[in-house]
Amino acid sequence: MKKIDAESLAKFLAGELQWKTATENFEITGFAPLKEANQNQISFFTGKTVTGELRSASAGLLLVASDFVGEPEVGALLRVKNPYAAMVRAVKFLYEENFSETKIAASAKIHPSAVVEGIVGEKAEIGPGSVVMRGAEIGAGTILQANVTIYPNVKIGENCIFQAGAVVGSRGFGFYVDEDGERKMVPHVSGVRIGNRSEFGANSVVAAGFLAPTKIGDDCHFDSFVQIGHNCEVGNRVYMASQSGLGGTTVVEDDCEFAGGAQIAGHLTIGRGAVIAAKAGVTKSIPAGAVYAGFPAEPIEKWRKGIVCVRKLSR
């Protein structure tokens, strides 16, 4: 991360700096989502006034729109034309790859056709055609089968399994509109963090995060063709059947299950122990322990009654 102070970054972003709780200039040490940013980090907010998570925000430097109204408890406000676009500019400016050198444990097994530039732990196995890019870390006992790709800034725990064709850490499907009105790709530079003993099916994909890593816990199991979008936070013991997927910035709490083809829109929360039926389309957050089906998804008892009524009408 490049070293720069708040005033200098404000000049770089051509914004109007307003001190709030901070009493003097300070060093910017990184960037983070609004709910995670600390007093030396930069974040952004696209709303026009203080609402929701902004009430408890403690970012050091917060990017807001020029017409933003309110007094959030942050170090300083930086008023800009387009907070999202300015945040992207800040990330591109601040981010620097500073990854460790290649390190392969003596007991690791590396296929001759694999390419390993990152760190591989004890007794890990890297299969034929697999790629571990510089800045990636593979934990002890983890297995990459054939043609698995692990991007930079991905850290994988111990005893995980990645079946053929799995991809972890690729750029997420995110876009923003810059100051000139042009749509551009969001740089997802924050990578992925995966816990222990999780398994990823053939051709599954986990996208990298923007301001913070995409996160997956322990003992999760994902079938083939599962998609985990950028900035998702997946808990422990989560099961997802083939062709199910999570939109970006979705939170999945522990012990959830997703049947085949279930699709979850972004920026939602799936409560602990919830079950999503096959081919369901979830457009709203789901409470803990609930079972939902259909599109748009609804409690499964209600969905079943609706199906019966439709069949009766068809007669």
Strand fraction equals 25-35%
CATH architecture of the largest domain: 3 Solenoid
**CATH overall fold name of the largest domain:** UDP N-Acetylglucosamine Acyltransferase, domain 1
Total discrete domains: 2
Largest sheet: 11 strands, mixed
pLDDT averaged over residues: 96
State the low-pLDDT regions, or none.
Answer: none
Structural class, from helix and strand content?
mainly beta
Shape: flat
Q: What's the quaternary structure here?
A: single chain
Can you count the helices? Answer: 3
CATH class of the largest domain: Mainly Beta
What is the CATH superfamily label of the largest domain? Hexapeptide repeat proteins
Percent range for helical residues? 10-25%
Rg from Cα: 22 Å
Give, in spatial order, the strands making up the sheet with the most strands: 9-12-15-18-23-26-29-32-35-37-38
How many DSSP E strands? 38
Structure write-up:
Residues 25-92 form the UDP-3-O-[3-hydroxymyristoyl] glucosamine N-acyltransferase non-repeat region domain. Keywords: Acyltransferase, Lipid A biosynthesis, Lipid biosynthesis, Lipid metabolism, Repeat, Transferase. It comes from Hallerella porci. With 315 residues, this protein is mostly beta strands. The chain has 2 domains: 4-94, Udp-n-acetylmuramoylalanyl-d-glutamate--2,6- Diaminopimelate Ligase, Chain: A, domain 1, CATH 3.40.1390; 166-302, Hexapeptide repeat proteins (UDP N-Acetylglucosamine Acyltransferase, domain 1). Helices cover 11% and strands 30% of the residues. The chain is built from 3 helices and 38 strands. An 11-stranded mixed β-sheet has the order 9-12-15-18-23-26-29-32-35-37-38. A 9-stranded parallel β-sheet has the order 8-11-14-17-22-25-28-31-34, with no helix packed on it. The protein has a 9-stranded parallel β-sheet with strand order 10-13-16-19-24-27-30-33-36, with no helix packed on it. A hairpin with a 4-residue loop joins β37 and β38 (298-299). The longest helix is centred in the C-terminal third of the chain and has 15 residues, at 300-314. The protein is flat, with a radius of gyration of 22 Å. It starts with a strand and ends with a helix. The model has no long low-confidence stretch (mean pLDDT 96).
